[in-house]
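Hi everyone,

Forwarding the result from last night's run.
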Amino acid sequence: MILDVNRIDSKPVVIEEDVSFPHEQFKYTDPLVDILSCHVKVTAVNFNDYVEVNAQVVAEVKVISSYSLKSFTYIMHTHDNLHFGAVIEEGDEDIILYKGNEIHLDEYLFSLIKSSIPLCPKAKGEKLPESGEGYRVLTEDEFNKEDKERLDPRFDKIKDLDLD
């Protein structure tokens, strides 16, 4: 998605379109496997010093479950406000520099989608796997409790030491 800065003025300009993110151009990393579809609604306003872009994204993505390591489809709704400027002055940490008369939004939209995926995605109704032969599945609380109770075997002889 490309915004032409010359066509944006002080009145909000609304643009809606479907956007694709080819694997050759964008780096997909776990848990994100693929972006199946993405619809973006952008509202842009030019404030002379900078262009404010409000992006609302609805995307259908394929992610890997943190429970079963199988991929599943997840529909996400996310949004962000971005500020673009042709010149960045000191103290303008929130402004993204653009050159020319066009703002290319694809990389920012892709980053927004990647950062909006849950850290531990799981399919609806999916449960933790059960313990099996040679392994146990623990919740974080169970692990922390066992870890506090566990003693280092190198100190086993100290337990029998009588200091009285």
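The mean pLDDT is 85.

Cheers,
N.
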